[in-house]
Amino acid sequence: MAGTLGVVADEVVDVRRLQVIDSHTGGEPTRIVIDGGPNLGAGTLAERRDVLREEHDWLRSAVVNEPRGSDAFVGGLLCAPTDATCDVGIIYFNNTGYLNMCVHGTIGLAVTLDWLGREGKDGLTRIETPVGVVTSKRLVDGRVTVANVPSYRSLKDLRLQVDGFGEVVADVAWGGNWFLLVQGHTLEVSYANIPTLTRFCQAARDSLEREGIRGSDGGEIDHVEVFASAEGIEADSRNFVLCPGGAYDRSPCGTGTSAKLACLHESGLLPEGQVWRQASILGSLFEGKVVRDEQGQLIPQITGSAFVNGESTFLLNPNDPFCDGITPKTVC
Ligand code: PYC
Fold it and tell me: pTM for this one?
């Protein structure tokens, strides 16, 4: 949607409007673009994500980067689904690029659709993503359960040398994104220790890259998760999750919790249906369990709460040097 808001040197300026709804899930922000996005054609969600990345990356940057957003934001572009059984489609992105799936974002999407009166029948919404169909179900207590894409572990007990930190023991698993899950370590997993945890996770990513370790489909392992026992709160574990753009996840990270559940199940430590309570670095909680689908695939179900906390129209003025957000290209 375009409008004429400003006049610069006798020239009428076309200002593009984007309508967004903000929410947060356990402290982690989600910003859903509900109107004003570009036409991405009629391909699959994965194809339309490629069009967005290659031809309209300005949208990602304008929506989640400063000055409108921050490194912590995950954005989502609401799309028409190509799968006729789905209610909506979604493409998630962040400060550095595009996500495959995002569970905290999908819990945020569920409350956003409820706010708009657009969720599926009886609070159950089928959502097409670039990596498969997921569902969200709003529970009577207001929480939301997301049934995620099939999840699995691809590497167990990997010994990784991390510069400045020594050897750690970790698994690699898929939960809708690729994760390095670190348990054999001596780090303190606490809010006060976020700067050190961030340095550790960045160094661990560098080690993965140096050693050419990737997910079993060749995908980059771009999220790193560090686990410890949960002291002082009712949870099975507390985690710290570093996202691809260098920000930490304020929520327990739903795709990361899915990857964790797959590892626990494959190690015989979490039977089907048993609840695992995963706390974030802030102490916000997700409850998760795994079930098998008809094909025998492991489906994590993640439950958490989200709150709608903003409804805005963004104005994209081409005369604004930071119209499309602050990026390396806009810095001189
Ligand atoms: O909840 O899946 C998640 C997620 C991914 C990145 C940030 N949050």
Answer: 0.95
